Amino acid sequence: MTNFWLSLKKPFFVLAPMDDVTDIVFRDVVEKVYPPDVFFTEFVSIEGLASKGRENVIRKLKRNIKSNKPLVAQIWGRNLDDYIKATKDIRKMGFDGIDINMGCPERGIVRRGYCGGLIGQYSEVESIIKAAKKGAGTIPVSVKTRIGIDHAITNDWFSFLLKQDLAAITVHARTVKEMSKVEAHYDEIKKVVKLRDELSKNTLIIGNGDITSYKKGLDLVKETGVDGVMIGRGIFKDIFIFDPKKKEHTLKEMIDILTYHLDKYEDNTDYKSFQILKKFFKIYVNNFDGANDLRIELMQTNSVREVKNILVNRDF
Question: What is the pLDDT of residues 139-181, one digit of tens each?
């Protein structure tokens, strides 16, 4: 398999991996509306894949075989043998790439040395990347990370990563401690691009943090020189965020997309609880008279049928 990253036209746009968000259902919705250049899965535990609960974890790797966009499986963990086994499995499943999560700021995970807790653990991270590559074979391996844990160590951390022969590195321009509570430090991304130009010209750099529109993504490219832009929470403010042409969308259009989302959810009822599905309602039901009341009503439902009954009885 070739390195798909190298075939992307720059600048490219990526939908960020988000747990309980970027599942097969939501990726299908985004693809129908206006897809990014690259999709990521949710976070997948390599140790979970090796456990008795494997079937519950492997659901996160369900793929839409009709999609023509590259799909990257994002994994996390620390056990080297499990990295080799998991990446071998992912390669056989036909994924286009594998990304290692070294940035999630969830406190309990970081405290145990996972994800964002790996930042600065140079020897262990080198072993993890080697193990992932061993199992991945010809599939490109990338890393998504942050600029530090409680303070920025951009120069040391990214100089190290750039020497690991990674296909791409996504820079979330905040520390773990900062989570998403402060503005992203785009000057740190600029530092990483400069380091890349000096140390590893073939590694693509993807900027991430506070991208709330396609235009702001282009501004980040212009400001920092990144090859690509990753958008996460911004998709909740605009489902059409990957469309370069800013357009107005009718309320009926938004409700139709919500209905499509509900239909796709029903096709995958083994995958998510209905309560998790509710987090998506705010994407579609906003910015119109009565939106708040309707959203409250939808949040009180207990099934897709109840939601559809409410929608069908409204005049949109």
Answer: 999 999 999 999 999 999 999 999 999 999 999 999 999 999 9
Q: Is 91 exposed, middle or buried (0-12, 13-18, 19+ CB in 10 A)?
A: middle
The secondary structure of residue 4, as a DSSP letter, is: G
Residues 135 and 211 in one domain: yes
Least Cα distance to 131 among 94, 107, 100 occurs for: 100
Which is it for strands 97-102 and 12-15: parallel, antiparallel or unpaired?
A: unpaired
As annotated, the active-site residues are 104
Radius of gyration of the chain (CA): 20
99 and 37, same domain (yes or no): yes
Amino acid at 16: A
Question: For the segment 53-94, what is each residue's pLDDT rounded down to a tens digit?
Answer: 898 899 999 988 778 899 999 999 999 999 999 999 999 999
Q: How far is CA 287 from the centre of its chain?
A: 26
Report how far residue 115's alpha carbon sits from residue 84's, in angstroms, rounded to the nearest whole number. 17
Q: How far apart are CA 218 and CA 112, in angstroms?
A: 37
**Are 189 and 256 members of one domain?**
no
Q: 214, 152, 162, 215: which is closest to 184 by C-alpha?
A: 152
